[in-house]
Amino acid sequence: MAIIIGSITSVTIDGLSDGIQSVNWSINRQPNRLWELGSWDPYKTQVTATVTVSITTYAGVAGIETLTPSASCANSTAVKPITINATTCEGDAVNVNYTGADSMFITSYSYSKGDATGFGTESWSLQKWIDPNITGDEFLSIPVPTYVLQGRSEGSKQGDVSNLGVVMTVEGKVTGEQGSVSAGFPGIGNANEIELGLITQVGGGTLQEGGKTGNSSATIPHHPIYLG
User: What is the C-alpha to C-alpha distance for residues 60 and 203, in angstroms, rounded to an integer?
Assistant: First the structure.
């Protein structure tokens, strides 16, 4: 286990490094073993690899992202450049750097302001398909996709904050209700309308707005395409 100190860790999203609360990252190499009769040893092991990053910032830090579903075989435009530079107590450097044409694909977004006197925060989840970089006759590596297509985004929002960080189309929007209250002191609850629909923009939620609360979320589906 390596210990990382946050005060000497720098994270940049969309070229900005201020107002970032936390970051999680993972490099995942997924084996798919091909078994054969007469042996407990795999015939081959197929390997895919992805990088996932989740970042929580104060609202408005990472800007606004317009979501445009793919209409042809072209990479999704729902991307953000990500750089993570961390140093462990053992002196080892941890670097994640996906910028420019190599930026990461946004897979989900959420905005939250649960305290009427508090501040709004935004969370971004991102993914990148990478080369597994595994060699050996027993391995079959899955290459980087030729394209990563963006699907139509869906999400929800509720609350009275002026900017909940998502833009929803009028067409296809439906409204539900949610409420709760408990006995005792002060015995205060709340009731809200929840709007669910198709999302065309995420980001730029309100940081501070006294007396108001709200939250929103959006899922941005991406699908890799392999053309030999």
Answer: 7
Backbone angles phi, psi at 56, to 5 degrees: -115, 130
Question: Domain extents for the chain?
Answer: 6-152+206-225
3-state SS assignment for residue 127 = strand
| Closest by CA position to 96, among listed 134, 121, 127, 133 | 127
Q: Which of 30, 217, 63, 228 is nearest to 140 (CA)?
A: 30
pTM for the structure as a whole: 0.91
Residue-wise pLDDT for 34-82, tens only, equals 999 999 999 999 999 999 999 999 999 999 999 999 999 999 999 999 9
Decide: residue 19, CB within 10 A, 0-12 exposed, 13-18 middle, 19+ buried.
middle
